[in-house]
Amino acid sequence: MKQAMRNAARRLAAEDGAATAEYAVATMAAVGFAGLLVVILRGDEVKGILTDLVRRALTTAG
Length: 62
Description:
Elements: H1 2-13, H2 18-41, H3 44-61
């Protein structure tokens, strides 16, 4: 009976699923950050800044 209790305690103390949960949290944070970037980059002001930046880069390169 003591051996069964030790085995059960060992199984409960194992952290096998901890890494999976950490990956899930990190993935959700990355998805949230990507969504925020999409919202920001859809703005007209940001589009204008990026277009101007690319235009200047192409004119100075030639």
